Structures are given as structure tokens and as C-alpha cells.
Amino acid sequence: MTGIDSETIRHLSETSVSVELETEDMTLNIGPQHPSTHGVLRLVARVDGERCFDVKPVIGYMHRGYEKLSEVRSYPQITTIVNRIDWVSGYANEIPFIVAAERLMELEVPERAQYIRLILTEMARISSHLVFNASYPLELGAATPLFFALRERERVLDLIEGVTGGRFHPNFNRIGGVKPAYGSGSTTRKQPQDLPAGFLAETRLAMDKVLESVDQLEDLVAGNEIILARTKGVGIVPPEIAAAFGVSGPNMRASGVAFDLRKNQDYLPYDRFDFDVITGQSGDCWDRWDVRLREIRESVKIVQQAVDSIPSGPLQAKVPKVIKVPAGETYVRAENPKGEMGYYLVSDGGQGPYRLKIRSASFSNISMLPWLLEGALVPDIIAIMGSLDFVLGDVDR
Amino acid sequence: MSQSPSETEAAASSTAEAAADPLTGFADGVADIVGGEAHVGFGTVKVKVPADKWSDAHLAARDQLDLVFFSWLSAIDWTNEVEVGDPPGEEVEERIELLSALSDLKDGNLVVLSTDLPSDDPSIQSLVDVYAGANWHEREAHEMFGIEFEGHPNLDRMYLPDSFIGNPMRKSYPLLSREVKPWPGTVDVEAMPDQDGDDEPSTENPES
Fold first, then answer.
1. Which contiguous run of DSSP H or E holds residue A178?
2. Which of these, A41, A185, A206, lies nearest to B193 by C-alpha position?
């Protein structure tokens, strides 16, 4: 064996294989209706043996034309559209849009409303990351973590529903504040509107439970040899590639980039809370799973601090009956569970936007797929796609 | 870039202005390096560059300003005659404004680069060689606004079926569902429950 390095051996074996077996390229179609595609994504790959090349993602099956639609809707109506973009964390989608409109109107949002927004955004992140922790091991063949993750996610969704009235599509933010479901409606409208009684205590309890189940999930998944073998060193994304493709959020942090919009943007008062930016080292599928799991703990930390320090006061700033946003342009971006979500809002002074560009995280995240899947093993396609945690509503908009 | 004297000058002036508004100083520094004109408003830095410098400006932003993160690329159709929505409040120059957003990965500084293209035949150099992520965003802009990106590897349809005719994000493209049923539709005549009479629905139905 001396004198020949491993590189040469591999080269020799590959050439000998291709000489002996004249393999013919095959086209492999995955989707659009495949359980691992998180919606309706279609992949067309050229397969040479066990490896795939020239992967072409075909999107557009979920395109609902929200950018065009928002040009004929008024500002209060648009929140109902935007929380359907990434439905796994519907609440978080409303925030950057509402903040963009408020920024153009130069509105000061009451502190309590900002804290409620922040608490619910972090709950949306927890629930989104728990869905990832349920679905990703399932895609790799481990069914048990799903039950642990979805049980706690239900607890969090119940809390969101208690405040907003909706599990997936809260439509809870108003320009200038928030509007809880509790106390509204024809019979109870005389009651003051606020968080439902016992919400803060329930939240503290739920956060403890979430932490418990995160520990259990870690034991279940990190102790599973098969999952480790299928994810470690698979689908490695170097940080410079991630940046050039606009890959953001946990997917980018898994590659070792300590960049979190919660730390440097002021759309919500995150600077008052103590939390860490979680990063991975190698940017493989395992790191992307690990970063999301550990981010749940940081979100729990933020919620616990916010619940302890939430100020009292009004929930809504004074706004005119008919909302008109002064002419101007602004871009507001937020750290959503899937990555950077932003709205470029162009107002001409009317009741609806002149143009609303929706920057959604999953679109850029999966635009990397042709690069990432080049030369990957066919069974790794599922492992790599699942680790990017995308939602097709967030891709197609 | 061979403008090192003017660059240092700009850096000096930008530090002086930084005291007033940190964004203004940053914006002027960016405008100097990419060769454009800076606008700052509502927390957003926008730098307008000439269309023939589009690709060079991005190269300079990436290599000299460390704006390595490609956030998005899209366009605005500025026109005074619109089929959907409301026309702009004031008369505007008819054009397609192409926008791209670039960010660094340290302090969260974001710059929106912008350039004007003629509405009838918008065409510009592709950014795919500068930022790989521009590929899909340019495909989207091509399909939605009809912008040609020279040097793009495949400007295939992204969302729409192959038989689709037109560029739906153009303001001249009518929204069919709105043609069929005006908003608010005539069936939606029931008023929203108001609160003590001071929270009236913001959309008025002209036919109720």
C-alpha cells in the first residue's frame, strides 16, 4: 500500500468503475407532491449512479401573487395576507410589515404593545423550530421526536391563540399597536382589551415545559447514531457561499457566521434582553439541526425575561380612523425563524402601498439548492433539503 | 477605483456628519465608493447609480465595502397611468427602477442600490457573476417586470406557466380578479362591528 495515497486510489477506482460499467444518465423527478418538500416543490435531477447533478428546483406551485395583491389592499388588510407567507410562524411575518408602515408614519408604539409583539414573535420562533425538530428526524426515519416536539408546540400555539384568537394566522398587529381577541366581540366589547388573565403565568409554565422537552429532544436525536451518520459532514455550506446566495437565519449561523438581526436592528426592543447568538462550526446538516435546537433555549430566555419585565400601559397608539401612510420608501427586515424577512414599502401617501417588495427567507435559502446538491448522493437529497427548513409559502409568496 | 484622495476626503467629511446622523455618513461613504448619489430616509440608505455602472457598483460594494450578503433584487414600475391600485400622489418620471439590497454580516448595515431603466425596453447587465444569489431574483424580475438581464445563464419562467403573456407586476397589467369583482365586493356590505362608534371600518363601500 505504500507509495499510493488515498486520492490516487479513489481516482483509480472511479475510473475503473466507469470503464467497466457504462452507466447511463437518468433523470430523477422528486415532487411536486413529496412529503419531504414541505409544500409543493419539484426537483429535477440528472442521476449518474448514486450521485445527482444539474439539480433544477421548480417552484411556483404556491405562487399567490401577494406583491400584486397588496397594491390593491389597504394597510390594515395587508396583515391578513402577509401572515400567510410562512404559515409555520405566521405571527412573525406581520412584524416587519407593520413596523415599516409605522416607520413611514413616524408612530411611537406603546411599550407594552412592543413587549407583547416580542413575546409572540419568540413564541412563533419556538413553535417553528419545534416543527423543524419534529419533521427533520422524521424525514431521516426517526418518528419519536415528532411526538415530543409537537406536544410542546401545541402548548405554545394555545398561548398564541389565547392572545390573538388564531393559531396560524393571528392577524393581531394593528398599525400603532396590537389588538388582543380577549375583550372584543359584540357581547364583551365593553371590557378592557388586554392579555387574557393568567397569560403570563401560563407562559412561564409553558417555557419550563419547552426547556424540558428540548433536553429530551437533544437526548433522542443527538444520541441516535443513524441520524449522526446521515447528517454529519453532509451538505456543507461555506459561509461565503451562504452570503452570496443570501442564505440567512439559522442556515447561515450554522456555517459559523454570528449574525443575527435581533442584535443590530431596532424593529423590536431586543437590546433590552440578554441572549446569545448561536452558531455552528462546519455548516453541515447536523449543525443546522443543532443551531435550531439551541435557539429554542435562547428564545425561551428572551420570553422569560420579557414576561418578567413587561410594562403596563396602553396597547395602541393614537392613529387616524382611515390610515394613510405618508409618501416615502423604507426597508425593514427582521430575524424570522426561517431567516431574514423584510418588506420594501413604497408609499405614495394613499391608503395602500404603491409597491410592496416581500423579501422572504426561504426563497433565497433554497436558491442555493442547485449548488448544494451538485454531486450529492440521492438519499442525501432529503437530508439536505430537510435541514434547510423551508416552507413553500415562504418561497413562492 | 483610483479615487483615493477623494475617498479620504469623503471619509473625513463623513465622520463630521456622523455626529448628526450615523446613516448619512455611512451613505455618503458608500455613494463615494460605488459612484452614485445617496438618499437617506426612514432608516434606509439608498444609493442611485447609473445603469451602465450597475455591475461595477456591486463589485465595489462587495469587495471594498464588505457588503457580502445579497439580500434581494426587485423593481418598481413608476408610471402615472395605472390599471391597479392608485397612481403615485405626484407626477413621476415614467421608468422602471431596479433595486438591489446588500448587507454586511457584522453591524447589519444595509444599502439599497438603485438604477433607472426605460419602461419600454429595460435591459441591464446581470449580477450573477458578482452575487450567485442574484440568479433567482433576476429570473423573478424578468418574468414580473420584463427586464432583460444580459449574461444571465437561464432566464426561465419562475412562477408563471409557459403560456402566460405579459409581465404581471407592471402597473399596466390589470388584476383579473379585481376586474371581475371590484373590491370591496358588493356581497361584503355588512359593516364591521364598531366599538362605541369610534372604530369605523377603514374601507368604505361605494355601493352600500
1. strand A177-178
2. A185
The continuous run of DSSP H or E covering B102 comes out as strand B95-103
**Cell (9 digits) for B175:** 388584476
Q: In the sheet that A42-48 helps form, which strands lie side by side, from edge to edge?
A: A26-30, A42-48, A51-58
Look-up: residue for cell 447609480? B49
Residue A296, CA distances (Å) to A124, A143, A229, A305 in order: 10, 20, 24, 14
Residue A193 has pLDDT above 60, yes or no: yes
Residue B74 is nearest to which of A354, A357, A371, comparing CB atoms? A357
pLDDT digits (tens, 9 = 90+) for A56-104: 888 888 888 888 888 888 888 888 888 888 888 888 888 999 999 998 8
Residue in chain A closest to B87 (alpha carbons) equals A354
Architecture category of domain A58-396 in CATH? Orthogonal Bundle (1.10)
pLDDT in tens, A130-171: 999 888 888 888 888 889 889 888 989 988 888 888 888 888
The alpha carbons of chain B give a radius of gyration, in whole angstroms, of: 21
Closest CA to A355 of A331, A373, A384: A331
Q: How far is CA A365 from CA A220, A237, A239, A243, A250, in A?
A: 27, 11, 13, 10, 10
Q: What pLDDT was estimated at residue B13?
A: 44
Mutate to test the interface with A, among B74, B96, B103 (most CBs of A within 10 A): B103
Q: Check B133 against A364: CB less than 8 A apart.
A: yes
CA pair distance A251, A127, nearest whole angstrom: 17
What's the Cα-to-Cα distance from A248 to each of A84, A243, A366, B139, rounded to whole Å? 20, 8, 11, 20
For A87, left (φ over 0), alpha (ψ -120 to 50), or beta? alpha
Return the number of other C-beta atoms located less than 10 Å from residue B189's C-beta: 10
CB B76 within 8 A of CB B40: no
The count of CB pairs under 8 A between chains A and B is: 143
Distance from CA of A103 to the nearest CA of B (A): 6
Answer positive or negative: Cα dihedral of A18, A21, A24, A28: negative
Compute how many other C-beta atoms are within 10 angstroms of the C-beta atom of residue A215: 13
Q: Which residues of A touch B73 (CB under 8 A)?
A: none
Query: Which residues on chain B are in Cβ contact (under 8 Å) with A363?
Result: 136
pTM of the entire structure? 0.81
Among the four given CATH numbers 3.20.20.70, 3.40.630.20, 3.30.460.80, 3.40.50.300, the one describing domain B4-174: 3.30.460.80
**Domain spans of chain B?**
4-174
From chain B, the residues in CB contact with A61 under 8 A are: none
CA dihedral A265, A267, A272, A277 (to 10 degrees): -50
